[in-house]
Specification:
heterotetramer, A alpha/beta (449), B alpha+beta (162), C alpha+beta (174), D alpha+beta (544), C: 174 residues, two-stranded antiparallel ribbon, D: 544 residues, seven-stranded mixed beta sheet, five-stranded mixed beta sheet, 20% helix, 19% strand, elongated, disordered N terminus
């Protein structure tokens, strides 16, 4: 990647994160001073259906991982006035993603206002923000912001005299990646094990406590305010025709400047890595990039340099945008070790409800661990592909796909490393077999977590 | 026999009415139970919670054993959880954990002799940009992220906590 | 089954048939007299025939390293036995890792046809058909061999070791 | 229990759909798996059970619906008009094979020591849908073996395939919430919260619905192998609900009782007490020969038929008011008809009394199946007594016995003596009669501690397993059941006793050869020749 080809002018568009650098943006006054709570009264005067059509016209798509058009999702709600819920999915368990945390700590009111407007649009009287248990700072920031909003009359009964009343609460998760899945989160909110529910019926028809429920990501709900401010055309100024607007990308792994960068969708991955991210560490070359969080199929170095960061282009490259977590892997790392690490993650996080995923993740973890320990057999590589292929698409939720896609992409794109490891019993890159760390107590050596 | 203190019982009862369904109060109640029983939950805690909330014990135990943030066994004053998932592993979290464990002479999941530290591995803690990192949580449930660690900075933090 | 009829003239005579028979007997008598080593007959019971290792004789219930029965009373042998001469009563073993073992294991030797189906059916090599076969008994002798006889009789010298043992199997994680 | 109240028969809209190329007519709102069951289509499944809610976790009942690229699970997908379903395409067979493989990779090699072998869901479905070589070479996950869940059930977590049927049972049917699935991922285990036992009155139903050998019954543990047992349908005589049951037996006797689906009475379930009703049928607790007690010693052993013939002249000579008959609610309607008509019409004696053992608890009901009246046929007895215009009070019998008026007292004793805790008291009362003729299927050790015995004849009876007849349950529903097998061949049924007492000879009822093959006359343990009979409970082929 010669320096001349990096387009240094391609820079961040701080659309949502405009005032994140101001510490006062966190408080109610600071937020109001910088354009806060102006859209709320405007929205309360509009017709709810108007707001839904506006969001549909803006082409806003879910920022959590699935990329489902938000306007359409809101459209699935039954048209009666049965009580319904708005839930904000702030579980953020996808490895590599840390954008929601920054948004909640730097601009809690942005989320609160976005949720009140969305609540009004879908006619819901109660909304919850489900935050993962480990984010204690985000939870405190949100609770303070909600208290301030109640005091300022933006929440509670008859908000700003519009006759619309809305309550909001924070619900603290307790450490489970599966609660990032829509119905898994709903089960957790209901006080049960975070195990996904059978679909159909979909949450929009029968979700939280069997009532119609809309689940959106933090970034999606925060963007609603900006759509109201700039209108559909204003929002579409950034991003491509099908993937409108900007997106917060979390850059991590072997990169000089990891962190959150807000860029318009369609931004080239190459500029993100070499421009904003500062390229790989000195003396190291780029080997692989996981563009959309750990469950997105991996891209080789040259594929990454041709890819653009939007839903369609990444889908064409055989991967997916997901939660926008870009993990950069340089050539000093062994891909077999990376895959084993991910498989351990999915084995630990599988909720155990459906047999293919519960036993499949365990099996994949054990196979990759035995390859890593030098006990692999040539047929193991074929077996990995078969197990992953037969696990995909066979379960209630997409965790089995999330565990299978890395296996299929790692093994097919870096097959030489796997075959070298099996034949030679040591890593092609590191030249030595993976030594189980000394702190590992004996029972975990067998791949059981 | 484990007994909930009065204000803890009051907190649990308010949690019962705070959400749309009584069952939703199980997760917060377990947090309260864990706080009361210095950082971990035992079957007696669950029996007590079941009596207070009138929810079957097996349902509360299901939720308790499902989530990772409820500790199954007793922990030291500071519970060190080093993230081990991909982004942190790429930035050397394994070496960091090895260094901490050697310094504290413990294996994974064990508590130091003086009962100050318990070291465990955690999956992705959502702070991958500032890898490698760890979370230290106290017995009363409060926790804090320590980021961009090196071997020395980690040990300094631990010495500060002693 | 077609019988070959030989109605030729010479066969109707009586004497030629007898004399040829006597001739053969005399030939063997003379051959055995002059080289004893080649003689087919052995003087049983001092000398006994060497049977192949696959010979199916009296049953043996194999034992584990600690001397307890290897049999888990899974009844596959009793099911596979064409003569239905095996009766087993199972019960709970005090050691939870063993779980099931036979309280009584009886083979009715008069019914048994020594076909070896039980040996083939057994999943854990708990029963084998051994090399001994001469076990006479006057009427009234107990031909229902029980565990004590099948596993711990005198000439088994404390029981034959089974090739399958649980300790390694559990350790290897199967 | 929606099934207990017979479904309202409002005619539901019927949909037509195609399953494996066969055009079918299906009720609206039924799922694909229900449609397949009603039309004898084979489908692999574990977690779906007609009497429980849908879990959709075993992911085995995958079907291919044309127009939908992804395989759908049959248990949760509703049938819509003109749906074309097939579960025999290569894609589905591959998916089922792999679905089974995922169930089996961590399953222990326990078949030799597992009670469920022979009727195990994994074995059956592997032979039908699996037939592959497993490629699992990694160490299996270790879990708890032989966990003592409670007084009736033993758990083995390694065998458990986490289909959650038992958890849903304790939540939805017995509503006692004892069981739960603890831990996460492939270390999840069924269990009760530390120390609490699985101890409700329907706990053994979890053993029936468990498709594998994870939950096994303590009472049947290691007693017999499933393929050595024949089974036959009958009516439980544990209480007056009259659940239809399936009894498992062979020539050594009876081994266990399981419920059979009967939408009108017990749905898919059965109580634990009813499962012990096989115990009083086996030989060790039965009276085999007739004995007489004369000048205070038992003896004079004779066959039941001969003993009854000796009584013929007693019945001829005795005066009507010196005879009395005591009946319990344990026999069948046909037997009552025979013995009551013998007494009322032949001997012209009206002293027929009803020994009611649980007057106080008659109307108890535990909300699901267990009723206070522990006799299966009280309604049948009252019906026959009212038909013969007999209305006597128990106190009359006590007075007549006290005054010594009764010379010969015939008592038809109960079969299920475990529910008759007033047995000794009544035996003392009966012993006041000059000549007591006690008919009983059970051998009663209580005779020893009755001091005032004068002259007693004891005659063995057959139990409900060894005779055909009708029970009328608490709601008046007459249920006919057939003879299952014979345990004590020389014992008599009460109608045979009445016939012999009249002096007639027993007719050997033979069946005209043409209708020998009709199911009504078929011998109960006639081997059904269609492919190997499965454990009806886990996979009922065809009947729904």
């Amino acid at each position: 990647m010669s320096a001349s080809e990096i387009n240094t002018s391609a820079n961040e568009i701080k659309y949502l994160s405009e005032f994140y650098h101001l510490p006062e943006f966190k408080t109610l006054e600071g937020y109001k001073k910088n354009g806060g709570y102006i859209q709320l009264p405007k929205a309360l005067k509009m017709q709810p259906q108007e707001i839904i059509d506006l969001v549909k016209a803006s082409g806003l798509r879910g920022r959590g991982g699935a990329g489902f058009a938000t306007g359409m999702k809101w459209g699935f709600l039954p048209k009666n006035n049965e009580p319904r819920y708005l839930l904000c999915n702030a579980d953020e368990g996808e490895p590599g993603t840390f954008k929601d945390r920054m948004m909640m700590e730097k601009a809690p009111h942005q989320l609160v206002e976005g949720m009140i407007i969305s609540g009004f649009a879908i006619g819901s009287k109660k909304s919850y923000i489900y935050v993962r248990g480990e984010y204690s700072d985000s939870i405190n920031a949100l609770e303070v912001a909600i208290a301030e909003a109640y005091k300022a009359g933006f929440l509670g009964r008859n908000i700003l005299g519009s006759g619309f009343d809305h309550d909001m609460d924070v619900y603290r998760g307790a450490g489970a990646y599966i609660c990032g899945e829509e119905t898994g989160m709903i089960s957790s909110l209901e006080g049960l094990k975070g195990q996904p529910k059978l679909k159909p019926p979909f949450p929009a028809i029968q979700g939280y406590l069997k009532k119609p429920t809309i689940v959106n990501n933090v970034e999606t709900l925060a963007a609603v305010k900006y759509i109201l401010r700039d209108g559909a055309a204003g929002y579409r100024k950034y991003g491509t025709e099908k993937s409108a607007g900007t997106k917060l990308f979390s850059l991590s792994g072997n990169i000089v400047k990891p962190g959150n960068y807000e860029v318009p969708l369609g931004f080239s991955l190459k500029d993100m890595i070499y421009g904003l991210g500062g390229g790989t560490k000195p003396g190291k070359k780029l080997k692989a990039v996981i563009p959309g969080g750990s469950s997105a199929p991996v891209l080789t170095a040259d594929e990454a340099e041709r890819a653009n960061l939007d839903y369609e282009n990444l889908a064409q490259m055989g991967t997916m945008l997901g939660s926008g977590a870009i993990i950069v892997i340089d050539d000093s790392k062994c891909m077999v070790e990376c895959l084993a690490n991910l498989m351990h993650f999915y084995h630990h996080e599988s909720c155990g409800q459906c047999t293919p995923c519960r036993e499949g993740t365990g099996w994949l973890d054990k196979i990759t661990t035995s390859i890593l320990a030098g006990r692999g057999r040539l047929s193991d590589i074929e077996l990995l592909l078969k197990v992953a292929d037969n696990m995909k698409g066979k379960t209630i939720c997409a965790l089995s796909d999330a565990a299978a896609l890395p296996v299929l992409s790692f093994v097919s794109k870096f097959r030489d490393e796997f075959e070298f490891y099996v034949r030679e019993g040591k890593s092609k890159v590191k030249g030595v077999v993976y030594k189980t760390p000394s702190y590992q107590s004996d029972h975990s050596k067998l791949g059981a977590h | 026999m484990f007994q909930l203190s009065n204000d803890a019982k009051q907190k649990v009862l308010t949690e019962l009415t705070r959400y749309e369904s009584k069952q939703s109060a199980v997760l917060p109640a377990l947090y309260i139970g864990q706080k009361e029983n210095n950082g971990h939950i035992t079957p007696e805690v669950i029996c007590e919670l079941s009596k207070v909330m009138e929810i079957p014990e097996s349902q509360i135990n299901e939720v308790f054993t499902f989530y990772t943030m409820y500790n199954k066994s007793s922990i030291g004053k500071n519970h060190i959880q080093v993230c081990r998932t991909l982004s942190c592993m790429l930035n050397g979290s394994t070496e960091l954990t090895e260094h901490i464990c050697n310094e504290l002479h413990v294996k994974m999941g064990e508590t130091t002799k003086d009962g100050n530290f318990t070291v465990t591995e955690a999956e992705c803690l959502g702070s991958c940009g500032t890898a490698p990192m760890m979370q230290i949580s106290k017995q009363d449930g409060s926790s804090k992220y320590y980021e961009n660690l090196t071997n020395e900075s980690a040990m300094n933090i631990l010495r500060g906590l002693k | 089954m077609s019988v070959v009829k030989n109605d030729s003239k010479s066969s109707q005579w009586y004497l030629p048939g007898i004399l040829t028979g006597l001739g053969i007997t005399a030939k063997h008598l003379v051959k055995n007299l002059f080289n004893k080593k080649e003689m087919i007959t052995i003087n049983y019971p001092e000398q006994k025939h060497e049977y192949s290792p696959r010979f199916k004789g009296n049953h043996i219930l194999t034992v584990k390293k600690d001397g307890s029965l290897r049999c888990t009373a899974c009844m596959l042998c009793a099911t596979n036995c064409p003569a239905e001469c095996i009766t087993i009563h199972a019960s709970e073993h005090p050691d939870a890792s063993v779980e099931k073992f036979p309280i009584s294991y009886e083979i009715d030797m008069l019914r048994c046809v020594f076909c070896g189906f039980c040996e083939e059916a057994c999943p854990v090599d708990a029963i084998r058909l051994g090399p001994e076969w001469q076990t006479p008994g006057v009427n009234g002798a107990n031909f229902n061999y029980d565990i004590k006889h099948l596993a711990y009789r005198a000439n088994l010298k404390g029981g034959i070791q089974s090739v399958v043992d649980d300790v390694e199997r559990h350790k290897s994680g199967i | 229990m929606s099934e207990i109240i017979t479904e309202n028969k409002t005619e539901k809209k019927m949909l037509n759909c195609k399953i494996n190329g066969v055009a079918l007519f299906v009720k609206e709102g039924s799922t694909i798996i229900q449609a397949m069951y009603e039309n004898q289509q084979k489908i692999a499944h574990y977690c779906w059970h007609p009497g429980l809610s849908i879990a959709g976790v075993c992911r085995l009942c995958m079907v291919e619906v044309t127009g939908n690229p992804r395989l759908q699970i049959a248990c949760n997908t509703q049938v819509i008009e003109g749906m074309d379903i097939n579960n025999t395409s290569a894609k589905v067979i591959e998916a089922t094979k792999w679905g089974l493989d995922f169930h089996l990779i961590n399953h222990p090699l326990d078949c030799p020591v597992c009670d469920q072998a022979g009727e195990c869901g994994l074995q059956d479905q592997y032979m039908e849908f699996g037939q592959y070589n497993s490629e699992m070479a990694e160490p299996k996950t270790k879990k708890h073996k032989v966990v003592d869940l409670g007084p009736t059930v033993v758990l083995d977590s390694e065998r458990c395939i986490l289909c959650s049927r038992c958890v849903r049972f304790t939540d939805e049917v017995s509503k006692t919430n004892e069981l739960g699935i603890f831990n996460r991922g492939d270390h999840a285990e069924i269990g009760t919260h530390a120390g609490k036992k699985l101890d409700n009155k329907y706990s053994l139903n979890t053993v029936d619905i468990c498709p594998v050998g994870a939950l096994t019954s303590k009472d049947f543990r290691f007693r017999q192998r499933a393929w050595y047992l024949k089974d036959a349908e009958t009516i439980c005589n544990g209480c007056s609900t009259g659940c239809s049951t399936k009894v498992y037996f062979n020539k050594e006797g009876l081994f266990r009782v399981k419920p059979k689906h009967n939408a009108a009475v017990n749905g898919y379930w059965m109580c634990d007490e009813g499962r012990n009703t096989y115990k009083f049928v086996n030989k060790e607790s039965r009276l085999l020969k007739s004995y007489q007690f004369k000048n205070n010693s038992w003896g004079f052993e004779s066959m039941a038929g001969a003993a009854t013939r000796n009584l013929i002249n007693i019945f001829k000579t005795a005066k009507a008011d010196e005879m009395a008959l005591v009946l319990t609610g344990q026999q069948t309607v046909e037997e009552y008809e025979a013995i009551v008509s013998f007494f009322a019409d032949h001997l012209k004696s009206k002293n027929i009394f009803h020994w009611n053992n649980n007057e106080s608890t008659v109307n108890d009901f535990d909300g699901l199946l267990i009723r206070g009246d522990k006799n299966p046929n009280t309604k049948g007895l009252l019906q026959v007594l009212s038909k013969h215009q007999i209305s006597t009070k128990w106190t009359d019998l006590e007075n007549q016995l006290a005054s010594g008026k009764i010379k010969n007292l015939v008592v038809v004793g109960p079969e299920n003596i475990s529910v008759y805790n007033d047995l000794e008291l009544k035996l003392n009362l009966f012993s006041k009669a000059e000549h007591l003729i006690y008919l009983s299927s059970a051998s009663l050790p209580q005779w020893e501690n009755i001091k005032t015995l004068k002259y007693v004849t004891v005659i063995p009876l057959k139990t409900y397993i060894e005779k055909s007849g009708t029970f009328i349950n608490y709601a008046g529903l007459a249920q006919k059941f057939n003879k299952v097998t014979t345990v004590v061949s020389e014992a008599l049924t009460v109608s045979e006793f009445a016939q012999l007492a009249k002096g007639e000879e027993l007719k050997i009822e033979y069946v005209v050869s043409e209708n020998l093959m009709t199911s009504e006359h078929q011998r109960a343990d006639q081997v059904v020749l269609e492919h190997r009979k499965k454990n009806e409970f886990v996979f009922n082929r065809g009947q729904f």
